[in-house]
Design goal:
185 residues, mainly beta, 3 helices
Length: 185
């Protein structure tokens, strides 16, 4: 494969770069270019993919993430989780249309889209995953990426067993990802 050849990978146009020293010693292809950011403001995520070149299992991950669009959104933009709930207003649920309001700070699964119907006690999980870049909790920089919680740390003191899943794009900031289920182990 030439250094600048392009390929379509999981619906994302990416351009492959020369294999790094790290990649040459493994069975992995070079990392692809970074995807578009999941958000235009308010903090989002971008990812890069690589392909296993072996018919056997490759050690390590085939995807890595970094933060992007880390600028404040204009005040009239509204809340990202609320926008996702509102997008379901034109879908009937139990035979009726509802105005959906976001449920925040869900300790059981903060990366699921849970919404409540305005004016009733109806609480529904409208999607198993919120969109990448959605904050896990209202007063936190932690965000959901691919249904997982990513913890943001401003120093190098916090590690999870799943830290290799993420690579951070901000100086002096670390992003660690882990599956919610493993947090309680």
């Amino acid at each position: 494969m030439s250094d600048n050849s392009s390929r379509l990978s999981l619906g994302v146009q990416s351009s492959r770069t020369a294999r790094s020293e790290e990649d040459r010693d493994t069975l992995w292809d070079a990392w692809g270019s970074w995807s578009e950011c999941s958000r235009t403001c308010g903090g989002g995520a971008s990812y890069s993919l690589r392909r296993c070149l072996s018919s056997k299992t490759c050690e390590g991950q085939n995807i890595k993430y970094r933060t992007c669009s880390n600028v404040d959104c204009p005040p009239d933009t509204g809340d990202f989780r609320a926008q996702q709930c509102s997008a379901h207003a034109d879908v009937r649920y139990q035979g009726q249309y509802h105005e959906w309001l976001p449920v925040y700070n869900d300790l059981d699964n903060p990366c699921a889209l849970k919404c409540k119907a305005k004016g009733s006690g109806l609480l529904v999980e409208l999607a198993p995953k919120v969109l990448d870049g959605t904050r896990c909790y209202t007063e936190s920089l932690d965000m959901c990426i691919s249904g997982h919680i990513c913890f943001f740390e401003f120093n190098n003191s916090y590690q999870t067993g799943h830290a290799p899943l993420c690579v951070c794009g901000l100086p002096q900031m670390r992003m660690n990802c882990c599956c919610w289920e493993t947090l309680e182990e």
